[in-house]
Write a structure and sequence with these properties.
The chain has 377 residues and is of the alpha/beta class. It is built from 11 helices and 20 strands. It folds into 2 domains: 31-231, Alpha-Beta Barrel (TIM Barrel), CATH 3.20.20; 249-376, Lyase, Ornithine Decarboxylase, Chain A, domain 1, CATH 2.40.37.10. Helix 1 crosses helix 3 (49-58) and helix 4 runs parallel beside helix 5 (93-101).
């Protein structure tokens, strides 16, 4: 079964049951007492924020994380007041009001932003929960100075207008084989955060992304924040099945045309491919306008008729072409799979990422809004 919707030229099928099972798989490997925070930013890494957030909660996550105030507001409208929603990113003043309206948990590291949160909190009638961020080596958001983190955490704990919820950091190299820098970050964070947790009982310490979570309990602390693994993609960019994960997203289309191409003839812009022998070419109505990257031109395979077929010629905004071989045998209307399985063959997001020289995160995140998402359990 192709999963292709005959009323759509291209459809992304998202198996929310797989998301739920991936969450349960992650949850089962956590240290005792560790919470799972499901990261659903970026529209659930292109899979659908709300649908995947629901599935993650069913799979054992206790809270959700996003990057923006708008994402938090949309989740709060969907989920109601009970589920904690944590914003990991920076906020402008206007975004802060949206975040407070959503009753989101906030990231702080600058004293001036902390003061703004505390001042605005009374207008919204609740005590915002704050997570103080330590830059232990990522070099992005967060205070690099341990003293600054300690002062801000103590100030949050002492201020009755807010609540100190957590101390956290983010690893720069958890997905790399060499653990030297990862362990340096871990040691720096532990030295800073553990005394704070003793001084402020109940505060959540958290550091691990998906890759660090899979490395073992020493990285887990009170909570882990998993994103890419929820969706059945390998945080190390290799094989999700090796970790017991199921890829949740597949991308389906159909063969819109089949034509005979003679030896030496070309297809697509720039004539980047010319047929070495007489062959048949199938035209699929998908292109970089849908987020199927132009950089994959002449560099990947798609599934048609249960077989891997090389993508040939330059991908355009709305179409791409595949070599069906001299024997042809594929009819107009035949289902095609760009990501996923067909008759025992599989094209993975990891495979496409390698062809592009990027990471698997970019593959589903890059699918454009004009690709409809259809959900199944």
């Amino acid at each position: 079964m192709s999963g292709h919707d005959p009323f759509q030229r291209v459809t992304a099928i998202v198996d929310v049951g797989a998301v739920e099972r991936n969450c349960a798989r992650l949850r089962s490997g956590l240290a005792p007492g560790t919470e799972l925070c499901a990261v659903v930013k970026g529209d659930g890494y292109g899979h659908g924020m709300g649908e995947c957030g629901d599935a993650a909660l069913r799979g054992g996550a206790t809270r959700l994380a996003v990057a923006t105030a708008t994402e938090a507001f949309e989740l709060r409208e969907r989920l109601g007041a009970e589920v904690p929603v944590f914003i990991t990113g920076a906020l402008t003043g206007a975004e802060l009001d949206v975040a407070l309206q959503a009753r989101a948990e906030l990231t702080v590291w600058r004293p001036d932003f902390f003061a703004a949160v505390a001042e605005r909190a009374s207008m919204f009638g609740f005590r915002p929960r704050l997570h103080v961020k330590h830059d232990s080596g990522m070099g992005r958001l967060g205070d690099r100075e341990a003293g600054g983190v300690v002062r801000l955490a103590d100030a949050a704990a002492a201020d009755e207008r807010v609540e100190l919820a957590g101390i956290w950091t983010h690893f720069a190299t958890a997905d790399e084989e060499d653990e030297t820098f990862l362990r340096a970050q871990l040691d720096a964070f532990r030295a800073l955060a553990e005394p704070l947790a003793e001084r402020h009982p109940g505060v959540l310490l958290h550091a691990a992304n998906s890759a660090a979570t899979l490395r073992g309990p020493e990285f887990h602390f009170a909570m882990v924040r998993c994103g890419i693994a929820l969706y059945g993609l390998d945080p190390f960019g290799r094989d999700p099945a090796a970790h017991g994960f199921e890829a949740a997203l597949s991308l389906h289309t159909y063969v819109a045309d089949v034509k005979r191409i003679g030896a030496g003839e070309s297809v697509g812009y720039g004539r980047s491919w010319r047929a070495p022998v007489d062959t048949w070419v199938g035209v699929l109505p998908v292109g970089y306008g849908d987020g199927f990257r132009r950089g994959l031109s002449n560099r990947c395979e798609v599934l048609v008729g249960g077989a891997r077929r090389p993508l040939v010629g330059t991908i355009s905004m709305d179409n791409l072409t595949v070599d069906l071989g001299p024997g042809g045998g594929v009819e107009v209307g035949a289902p095609a799979v760009l990501i996923g399985e067909q008759d025992g063959e599989r094209v993975s997001a990891e495979e496409l990422a390698v062809a592009l020289g990027t990471i698997n995160y970019e593959i589903p995140c890059g699918l454009s809004a004009r690709v409809p998402r259809a959900y199944r359990t």
